[in-house]
Amino acid sequence: MRLRTTLLVALLSLATACGGGELAATAAEPEQSAPATPVAVLRAEGGFVTASTNVLRAPRVVVYGDGLVIADAAYKTTISAAEVTQTVDALKKYLTGQPPTATPKPGAPMVTDIPATVLGVAGDDGKMIEVKAEALDQVAEFYPKELVDAKKLLDGLAAKAAEKKEPYTSDRIRVAAESVPTAEGERTPWPAGVPEPSGQIDPVWQKDLTGAEVPALVKAAPPVPDAGLPIFETKAGVFVLSWRYLLPGE
User: Measured between alpha carbons, how far is 184 from 236 in angstroms, rounded to an integer?
Assistant: First the structure.
């Protein structure tokens, strides 16, 4: 037994002398997962919205190559590899050859202040093919059927994620705070451990949070539906705060 132990120690010493110790240390490190790659997206752009909405606006739905589907940066689900392939193939068929900005046929009624719809899919070269259509839902009959079908497909995936009601969370958050000196309601001190607005706020202060800042903010301003936006008071003023989880790659 003593001889076997002595031989083992000698072998380990030899391995370390030859650089084996560094190899062992490297092998013990956890593997870094590859970043999620979007392969399909449905999002809104422009329109008459508040400054905070514009800062925090998340895609209606994003489909990733590994099957992850995230809707409104709030819910998630997973689809199979076959479903990912079917979705991408269908969207490429719908969007390939369409102009980057689609225009409705003559005779379409004028619709203002509505965000444009942006449809996207990864092409064969990996680059996103994107098509923007103003007021697509409102004047759908004046647009090519392919665009309507593409949106219907992506809307269906968003609905699937929302119906499952599995919350999407992240260790990164985007915060928007608007200065509202006249805000009515309970005012609380700005949450400890979270960077607070400073300087001139015009029109909205925004910040991406990571690490311990995230749970500190979520605890102070939990995502309670229809509960109204929390009001925080700092030395710089009174702020209405809103936030969302950041998506992979943002």
Answer: 17
